[in-house]
Amino acid sequence: MMQKIQRFGGAMIVPVLLLAFNGIILALSTVFQNPDIVGSIATQGTFWSNIWGVIEEGGWTVFNNMELLFVIGLPISLAKKASGRAVLESFVIYMTWNTFMNAILQTWNFGVDLSDPEAIGIKSIGGVTTLDTSIIGAILLAGVAIYLHNRFYDTTLPEWLGVFSGSSFVVILGFIAALPLAFLAAWVWPPIQDGIAQLQGFMASSGTIGIGIYVFLERILIPTGLHHFIYQPFDLGPAVVQGGTISYWFEHLSEIANSTDSLRELFPGGGFQFQNVSKVFAPIGIGGAFIVTSKPENRKKTMALVIPTALTAILSGITEPFEFTFLFLAPQLFFVHALLAASMSMIMYAMGVSASIGGGFIANFSQFILPMWANHKDAIFIFLGVGLAFSVIYFFLFRWAIVRFNIKTPGREDSGEVKMYSKKDFKEKQATGGVAMSSIRESDNPNAQKAAQFLEGLGGAQNITDVTNCATRLRVSVADEGQVLEDDFFKGGGAHGIVRNGKAFQVIVGLDVPKVREFFEEIVEDENKNYEGDE
């Protein structure tokens, strides 16, 4: 069960990755339409103002269709076969469910008035006015569609019913399931919305302690993959404000930027975006500690490992490759990291900073620093000052712990303990007993080489039972965990680490994981075909 929850949580990152660029576009559009920042060129009605108004509307595409993105995005990762067809099925089933709800609410009295699509609790999705179930409804219906697809897509029907097989059969079953689910939603969702409204008030008023607990849980759960379930109800769902904190921030960005009131007064729920704060400042201190404590002979290798992953975290907010670099060597330091991240967030919030802090400095600059510069310099200086102070704290605390307890962080491994396998070593192994090489295995593409080595380390194609991925991890289930090689073999292929949980494995790849997965699946399919042919 835990493995399935982790896979589902990892799959939810697919649509979330689309937010970064659109968030930057919205922030820049707001800034460039503000005469106080760019001057009279931004006066309403000028060509400059009009063109940026058009660009802003385009930037809202992702946020205005978040439900559809989850309905479309989840099957990409969770469908076990024919994922493209699963996407189509999921979309049709979800829209059928919404259309059923529209008809039900107009036919029977459930205490909901659909006449005003802009009313709280009502939303137009794909042209259908329905209950605003946010990403919760999208995730649940996508889950139903994915289950039906994985279970019934290959069902064999009589030849005379062949036109209804495959995707058609899945959609038929989804149509049947959507009707009672629509009645259920029309009955139970309005009271749930009332409860969510009360929860929003409670969470927004939970203050500094609430922010600290939230950030600590989000950070500490990263190794399990369950952190997606912590932040997404806040970022994208109704846990604090309707529509999520990210969407709320951009909707009110111009209003907040032009006000001289404190950010805490203008956006008290903004502290529930502070899981991103440590992404910029922690890697500076941690990376520095790893480098200065490494052995002199390993210093260059350590820098080559730490600096790229740290820069990725600082600039883009993708911290998992960096955090997993030390997580499995020093889990006690990861616990310290979670505590420091929570403390940093609490101090910033207590000092008046409350905003949608983007994942990485690029997003921070565009959606917080730049638009807030005119009237909220104090909050910006607090953000930067507290953050850099914690970078120093991270550095000295990690450096002390590494030296005091002789923790084998990168560059401090005992001689001979870690062997880095080269491409030549890997091909020699294949030639002397590994599985036969496919054309993909022989490719010079670095992602293909990673996929080939990871497959070898996981016991070969015949040992693979399921494959998916999240933002940075290749998630694989195997038939026999005893065939999986040691962590060093995966690191030799470019992995940052590997998580082991029975027959479930997570290879920490980095941002190239979707490409690695494609090659991985191609090799598995190719070699399974060859195996069946040999039989």
Automatic annotation (TrEMBL):
<feature type="active site" description="Phosphocysteine intermediate; for EIIB activity">
    <location>
        <position position="470"/>
    </location>
</feature>
<feature type="transmembrane region" description="Helical">
    <location>
        <begin position="125"/>
        <end position="148"/>
    </location>
</feature>
<keyword id="KW-1133">Transmembrane helix</keyword>
<feature type="transmembrane region" description="Helical">
    <location>
        <begin position="58"/>
        <end position="79"/>
    </location>
</feature>
<dbReference type="Pfam" id="PF02378">
    <property type="entry name" value="PTS_EIIC"/>
</dbReference>
<keyword id="KW-0472">Membrane</keyword>
<dbReference type="GO" id="GO:0005886">
    <property type="term" value="C:plasma membrane"/>
</dbReference>
<keyword id="KW-0813">Transport</keyword>
<feature type="transmembrane region" description="Helical">
    <location>
        <begin position="349"/>
        <end position="374"/>
    </location>
</feature>
<feature type="transmembrane region" description="Helical">
    <location>
        <begin position="195"/>
        <end position="217"/>
    </location>
</feature>
<keyword id="KW-0418">Kinase</keyword>
<feature type="transmembrane region" description="Helical">
    <location>
        <begin position="380"/>
        <end position="402"/>
    </location>
</feature>
<dbReference type="GO" id="GO:0090563">
    <property type="term" value="F:protein-phosphocysteine-sugar phosphotransferase activity"/>
</dbReference>
<dbReference type="InterPro" id="IPR001996">
    <property type="entry name" value="PTS_IIB_1"/>
</dbReference>
<keyword id="KW-0812">Transmembrane</keyword>
<feature type="transmembrane region" description="Helical">
    <location>
        <begin position="160"/>
        <end position="189"/>
    </location>
</feature>
<dbReference type="GO" id="GO:0008982">
    <property type="term" value="F:protein-N(PI)-phosphohistidine-sugar phosphotransferase activity"/>
</dbReference>
<dbReference type="InterPro" id="IPR010975">
    <property type="entry name" value="PTS_IIBC_a_glc"/>
</dbReference>
<protein>
    <submittedName>
        <fullName>Maltose/glucose-specific PTS system IIBC component</fullName>
    </submittedName>
</protein>
<dbReference type="GO" id="GO:0016301">
    <property type="term" value="F:kinase activity"/>
</dbReference>
<feature type="domain" description="PTS EIIC type-1">
    <location>
        <begin position="1"/>
        <end position="414"/>
    </location>
</feature>
<feature type="domain" description="PTS EIIB type-1">
    <location>
        <begin position="448"/>
        <end position="530"/>
    </location>
</feature>
<feature type="transmembrane region" description="Helical">
    <location>
        <begin position="302"/>
        <end position="318"/>
    </location>
</feature>
<dbReference type="InterPro" id="IPR003352">
    <property type="entry name" value="PTS_EIIC"/>
</dbReference>
<dbReference type="GO" id="GO:0009401">
    <property type="term" value="P:phosphoenolpyruvate-dependent sugar phosphotransferase system"/>
</dbReference>
<keyword id="KW-0598">Phosphotransferase system</keyword>
<dbReference type="InterPro" id="IPR018113">
    <property type="entry name" value="PTrfase_EIIB_Cys"/>
</dbReference>
<feature type="transmembrane region" description="Helical">
    <location>
        <begin position="12"/>
        <end position="32"/>
    </location>
</feature>
<keyword id="KW-0808">Transferase</keyword>
<dbReference type="InterPro" id="IPR050429">
    <property type="entry name" value="PTS_Glucose_EIICBA"/>
</dbReference>
<keyword id="KW-0762">Sugar transport</keyword>
<dbReference type="InterPro" id="IPR013013">
    <property type="entry name" value="PTS_EIIC_1"/>
</dbReference>
<keyword id="KW-1003">Cell membrane</keyword>
<dbReference type="Pfam" id="PF00367">
    <property type="entry name" value="PTS_EIIB"/>
</dbReference>
<dbReference type="InterPro" id="IPR036878">
    <property type="entry name" value="Glu_permease_IIB"/>
</dbReference>
<feature type="transmembrane region" description="Helical">
    <location>
        <begin position="86"/>
        <end position="105"/>
    </location>
</feature>
